[in-house]
Every structure is written in C-alpha cells, then in structure tokens.
Amino acid sequence: MARRPFQIDAIVILPDYIHCIWTLPENDSDFSTRWRLIKRDFSSRMSAPLSTRGEKKIWQRRFWEHLIRDESDLQSHMDYIHYNPVKHGYVRRPEEWKYSSFHRLVAKGICSNFQGKAVIENVENMKLE
After folding, report:
1. Could you report the per-residue pLDDT of 39-92, keeping only the tens digit for each?
2. Other C-beta atoms within 10 Å of 11: how many?
3. Which of the 8 DSSP states describes residue 37?
4. Strand 7-14 relative to strand 17-23: parallel, antiparallel, unpaired?
5. Of 42, 10, 34, 29, which is closest to residue 128 (Cα–Cα)?
6. For residues 13 and 104, what is the distance between their CA atoms, to the nearest angstrom?
C-alpha cells in the first residue's frame, strides 16, 4: 500500500480465494500491479510446489475486475462478498466469519446485516464466480 496506495472498501478471505472491493487514487486504474505485488509478497513468505513456469502454485494467474457503477451496485457487491462464506457452507451467518470486513461495515451502517430474506435471495442469485 505504501508503493501503490488503495483503500479496501470490503473484503472476505476464504480458504481458496479472496473477494474484495478497492478504491484506487483518482486517475489510477492499475489493479494489475497491485495484485502482482500482493501475490509476490505473500508467495515469497511461504514454501509451495512450483509450476512448470517456476511459479509457486498458490495463486491463479489472473483476477476478475468489475467497475462499480453506482451505490446500488456497490451495496450488491458488498453483500455478495460478505455472504460468500455462508454460500460456500463455512458458516451459517456472515457475522460468524472473522476474515471479513462485515463487522466493521455493519457497525458503520454501510452494509446490510442480512436480517431480511430479500437480501439473502438477491445475493444467492448473483452470478459473480
């Protein structure tokens, strides 16, 4: 973050992947360099088998990027991120997953607390993976 600043607006870390929403500085859209640096730094700290390309078999080679269109889109993606541990059967409710920005954002009134059935149905119907 010191070399390539960004703000983490929402995040969930699961055993096999990460979902997050970032805000980059104005006039900066370089997600690729940031992901490359994060993956490189993380990978350098652990041992793992190497691929035929000499890369550690920890990360997939690419990432998916989505430009948030408006407040509704932001809210939908935040809900999706925080509901993901439930969707994959790790916990029964988002607040049970500690590797998430869920608690911080609910406390700030920024994201849903998943009390309404409509929110859960909307999240379960999103096809983002």
Report:
1. 888 888 888 888 888 777 777 777 888 889 998 888 888 888 998 998 899 998
2. 19
3. H
4. antiparallel
5. 10
6. 15
56, β-bridge pairs: 50
What pLDDT is recorded for position 69? Answer: 93
Distance CA 99, CA 10 (A): 11
The letter for the amino acid at 76 is S
Out of 17, 83, 90, 99, the active site residue is 99
Q: Quote the CA–CA distance of 78 and 84 in Å, as a whole number.
A: 10
pLDDT tens digit sequence for 6-50: 999 999 999 888 999 999 999 999 999 998 898 888 888 888 888
Place of tokens 């652990």: 46
Any idea which fold 7-125 has? Answer: Alpha-Beta Plaits (3.30.70)
Spell out where the chain has E strands: 7-14, 17-23
Query: Is 99 annotated in the active site?
Result: yes
pLDDT given for residue 4 in this prediction: 93
